[in-house]
Design goal:
Elements (H helix, E strand, L loop, with lengths): L5 E6 L4 E7 L1 E6 L2 E5 L6 E5 L2 E7 L2 E15 L2 E11 L5 H16 L7 H21 L5
Parallel strand pairs: 1-8
Antiparallel strand pairs: 1-2, 3-4, 3-6, 5-7, 6-7, 7-8
Helix pairs in contact: 1-2
Length: 140
Amino acid sequence: MLPESLSLDIVTPEKRLVSMAVGEVVLPGSEGSMGVLPGHAPLLTALSVGELVYRSASVRHYVAIAWGFAEVLPDRISILAETAERGEEIDRDRAERARDRALQHLKSRDAEVDFKRAQVALQKALIRLQTSSHARGESI
C-alpha cells in the first residue's frame, strides 16, 4: 500500500527550514527538475541552484535552493541544502542588488573578475527573484 503523504525535511547548515507532511515535491535535481509523489522509488540525487516547490493540502510553497543533496524514500524526502530560503522571506531589494552586481561583473572587461563566480551569483539572484514572485502569486 502506498503512503498518502511524504514527510519533507529541508535542512541547511544554519537551520531546519521545513519539517512537515506534504503531498508532492518538485525539486531542482542536478540533471533537471524532478517531481516526487508518495511511494516514489528510493534515490539519492545532487541538487543544483533552483526552485523547490512543495504542496501541502492544496497550497503550493516555494523555496529557493542552492546546491545540496536529496534523499528520496517512498514516505520521506530529506533535503540537505547549502542554502535554502522560503519565497515569502526573500528580501527582493537585496536579490535585485545581487542581480545587478552580477550583471555588472559579467559586463566588465576587468581581468580580475571571476566570470564563473559572477554567473553563479546571477543564477542564484534570478532564482531568488523568481521564487519570491511565485510565493507572492505574481507572474514573472
